[in-house]
Specification:
about 40% helix, alpha+beta, globular, Four Helix Bundle (Hemerythrin (Met), subunit A), four-stranded antiparallel beta sheet
Length: about 210
């Protein structure tokens, strides 16, 4: 479920990945301004015809999974900009669907709905939008359940774009960015709403 627990310790986190230092095949270019916001909104709007369907009821073809290609991002993919990435997703969903995402666990059902409509183009085609959705999922955990963003420690075996995870008050690492991509690539079995509920319940139970 994206959860990894280790014995409490306070390792010195590795430095955040530097976009400009990445190899040419994986370099993450950054675009600032309103053009990217319009592109994200267009991606969401382009799936409106399929809205209203229940995820899992159809056997729509799935597009290519995220390849690790360079991404066009409005903000640097760093801890300090996690909230800004999440807000980009919130604004796009509000502008296109009229849905207000309020950073509650309940709002994640709507996020599942948005991501389910990206299955046919595939997560590689709309990776920028999927990434902002993942930041939103993480921000729900951060704002409501005491998690915080962190650069992935080297000994935590969770893949995440840009090696960013969230860590809970008891040291539980969780992977909302990676989960958003899995939701598009694997379908309802990787529901982001269920993911967050499970992580929060596990942390509270322990």
């Amino acid at each position: 479920m994206g959860l990894f627990r280790r014995k409490p310790k306070t390792p010195t986190p590795p430095p955040a990945p530097r976009v400009e230092a990445a190899p040419p095949t994986t370099a993450m270019s950054i675009i600032r301004g309103t053009d990217l916001e319009a592109e994200l909104a267009a991606e969401i709007a382009g799936t409106d015809a399929s809205r209203g369907s229940i995820p899992g009821e159809t056997d729509a073809p799935r597009g290519p999974a995220f390849s690790g290609r360079g991404l066009r991002l409005q903000h640097p993919p760093e801890v300090d900009y996690a909230a800004a990435h999440a807000q980009t997703f919130v604004d796009a969903v509000q502008n296109i669907d009229g849905i207000t995402l309020d950073y509650t666990v309940e709002s994640l059902a709507a996020v599942d709905g948005v991501l389910s409509n990206f299955e046919e183009p595939g997560s590689d085609a709309v990776a920028e939008t999927v990434l902002t959705a993942g930041f939103y999922v993480g921000e729900v955990m951060v704002r409501k359940h005491g998690y915080r963003w962190t650069t992935k420690p080297e000994d935590v075996p969770l893949w995440s774009p840009f090696d960013l995870l969230v860590v809970g008050p008891k040291g539980d690492y969780s992977n909302p960015l990676g989960k958003a991509f899995k939701r598009v690539e694997n379908g309802p079995e990787d529901s982001v709403a269920f993911f967050v509920k499970a992580m929060v319940a596990s942390a509270e139970r322990d």
